[in-house]
Amino acid sequence: MPSVREFQEQSLKMARYFKEFCEENGLLFYFCGGCCIGALRHQGFIPWDDDADFFMPRKDYEKLKQLWPQKADTEHYTLVQQTENLVDHNLFVTIRDNETTGIKPYQKDIDMCHGFSMDILPLDGYPDSPWQRKKQVFWALLYSLFCAQLIPENHGKKMALLAKIALGIVPSQKLRYRIWKLAERNMTRYSIEECSAITELCSGPGYMKNRYPKELFTSSVYHTFEGEEFPLPAGYDQYLRIAFGDYMQLPPEEKRVPSHDLLFCDLHHSYRQYKGVYYCTGEKKHGKK
């Protein structure tokens, strides 16, 4: 398995290309989570963090999905999004480096591009009406279940049981797709322009409750990150305090560990994988892992 620094260098390379693409196409984007904290606290990656993630307002996020196949270097980078025929168990799009491999446990049996990935997460309007907000959360939870199609972990036995029952009642892939597309349309119907706040609907139930004043994300500001300039939300301090509390305080030592969960990784070769068997350039190279 590559070292943390090797993972960071790969993530930085991908982030650099993504930044260039967004700037060339007038898309608003910014670091989120760990990289946003890292830029402020370490002027680069958090020492034990090994990936890069970005936020985009929903309009820019949807435009990204349209522009990528037309204008991006798709020989090198693939944008992967869930469709009726591809269930990758993510709630958001990922950018993948076609010249590398990073296979996650929950994707090990999927015939898809398994290049090392970078997550792109959308931001959505948080409706001002309490009743509309309740409806949005309902649709967002439904979207999370039928888009990811996984039993949620770390959210209690009751939540896991309800999810298992719901997925069991709807075994049809086509019907699951229709449900999550309906849920997606309903949860995103509140545009950022008509709302006074913003929320995260595709980052999991924990972040879904967060309410951010929308002015925090109306523009970006550039900060030094690994010796280069990358964008953060203009209101990065308030965003990070809402999401993470005192983000400048280091966590306990036992939590300063890498969070990646890759089953197989090669940052120098591209492997295709299906049902646990790995292939390189079309020829089988490894048996079942």
Describe, in plain words, how this protein is organized in 3D.
The protein is an alpha+beta fold. It contains eight helices and 14 strands. The chain has helices at residues 4-24, 33-41, 58-71, 130-148, 157-169, 173-187, 205-208, 236-244, and strands at 30-31, 53-57, 77-80, 93-97, 101-103, 116-126, 197-199, 212-213, 220-225, 228-233, 264-266, 271-274, 277-280, 283-286. The strands form four sheets. Strands 1, 2, 3, 4, 6, 7 and 8 form a seven-stranded mixed sheet that branches. Strands 12-13-14 form a three-stranded antiparallel sheet, with no helix packed on it. Strand 9 and strand 10 form a beta hairpin. Helix 4 runs antiparallel to helix 6 (173-187). The chain is globular. The two termini are 14 Å apart. Residues 281-289 have low confidence and may be disordered.
Helix tally? 8
The termini sit apart by: 14 Å
> Roughly what is the average pLDDT, rounded to an integer?
91
> What is the radius of gyration?
19 Å
The count of β-strands is 14
Helix content: 25-40%
How is the main sheet built? Answer: 7 strands, mixed
Low-pLDDT stretches are 281-289
User: H/E order of the elements?
Assistant: HEHEHEEEEHHHEHEEEHEEEE
Structural class, from secondary structure content? alpha+beta
- The fraction of residues in strands falls at 15-25%
| Overall spatial form | globular
